Amino acid sequence: MTLANRILDLKYAIVGGLSSLMEFIASKAFDYPNNLGMPITSFSDDERAIWDYVSQLPKHLTIMPPPAAPVNFNQAIFGNFPVMLTIKRTFFEHSKDGFYNFYVPNYNNIFFLPDWVSQLIQVNFDVHIDTTPLEIIRQGLFLGIVSFMFLMEFRMKMYWFLTINPYTRPWVYFISLTDWLYDVVSGFTPVFLGLDLTPTVLLGVLGKMADSLNHLVFTMPFLPSEGEPGKMLIDGEMKDVILFRYLPYLWYSHPIPDKLREFWYTERPEIYEFMKKSYGHLDIEFLPNRILKEMYEQQQDHKVLVDNIDNLKNLSTNLICEISSHSSTYFHVFNDKQINVNDFFDVITDKFIT
After folding, report:
1. Residue 149: half-sphere exposure toward Cβ, Cα within 13 Å
2. Which of 95, 96, 119 shows the shortest CA–CA distance to 219?
3. 91: CB partners within 8 A, 6+ apart
4. What's CA 126's distance to the chain center, in Å?
5. CA distance 287 to 292
6. I need a surface site. Which of 20, 235, 252, 262 has the fewest CB within 10 A?
7. CB-based contacts of 165: which residues, under 8 Å, 6+ apart?
8. What are the phi and psi torsion angles at 105 (to 5°)?
């Protein structure tokens, strides 16, 4: 028997012995196999199908901390800003789906804002099609977190050099910038073999927070729940995507932004015609506010004119009626006077004759 076979038999013997030992401990201490342990959560068929679908999706791969990638001499000396590897939105126009459709690649580590947060941003901060303000905020948070991580790494490296007193200027400034977070977390992190794990835990948490910003996707003008998983042929390859198309829900439940309606009416009338044709049966206003104001003022002017004409007709009718009434009265008075005069002359004549 060769030495390799002896080593293999020894491995089998060790594994078998450990297996028997664990089974003995489990049966005596935990009543194995009668005690099945914690209950297993049962999933419905729909939940299991969703779990299986998400598990087979690819992962959005990023590098944290971002690698140095200088593109010019200054960046090679002083360093370059960290680059985010975000998930891109691809907009497309379709004759049936509309003009503001887009899709994003579907990953198992992709995530979105909650619906109520997305609605709050769109309604109160006027962020709809163009998400540049949100991108700037995300970039600022990413740079801030990564810069703070570099400060923490620099603080850790200072303790490697015994000739540097970290509590003298200028080193004390770097310690002051990170001490507040150390003081908060140090009581919750363990000490292993006399080594404080606070810096390691902090760097891991901060790195996870910064990396999560790469997987965040903004879905404006849609709500995240309006996305539909599907497949599209991209660069000759069938890929899993999340589709956002048709009419956004917020454009139905809230007024469409006036700037957007003005843009449709003045620069892209084909969009206005499509919206009017496809969603004209809904109670949605697609005309800009200035056109609606002009239409309202014209309606008011027309109403005033019609009211004036009606008043003029009523006035003319009343005037004619008054004139007719007074004419009849004057005629009767004149007629009565004429009869009295005739009677007077008849009496006078009779006296002269007699």
Report:
1. 22
2. 119
3. 100, 101, 102
4. 10
5. 7
6. 235
7. 171
8. -60, 140
Rg for the chain, CA atoms, rounded: 44
Domain ranges of the chain: 3-55, 73-238
Residues 78 and 76: their CA atoms lie apart, in Å, by 6
Q: Which residues of the chain have pLDDT under 70?
A: 1, 36, 39-41, 300-354
**For residue 53, which of 222, 230, 234 has the smallest C-alpha distance?**
230
How is residue 253 written in tokens? 């439940």
What pLDDT score was predicted for residue 316? 54
- Residue 126 CA to residue 252 CA, distance in Å, equals 16
Q: pLDDT tens digit string along 246-285?
A: 999 999 999 899 999 999 999 999 999 999 999 988 888 8
The Cβ of residue 32 has, within 10 Å, a number of other Cβ atoms equal to 15
Strand, helix or coil for residue 36: coil
Q: Is 158 exposed, middle or buried (0-12, 13-18, 19+ CB in 10 A)?
A: middle
| Half-sphere exposure for 120 (CA within 13 Å, toward CB) | 5
Give which of 148, 115, 303 is closest to 225, Cα–Cα: 115
* Burial status of residue 57 (CB atoms within 10 A of its CB: 0-12, 13-18, 19 or more): middle
pLDDT given for residue 105 in this prediction = 93
pLDDT digit string, tens, across residues 175-225: 888 888 888 887 777 777 777 788 888 888 899 999 999 999 999 999 999
The residue to which tokens 């995300």 are assigned:
138
The span from the CA of 279 to the CA of 99, in Å, is 13
Asked whether the beta carbons of 256 and 278 are under 8 A apart, the reply is no
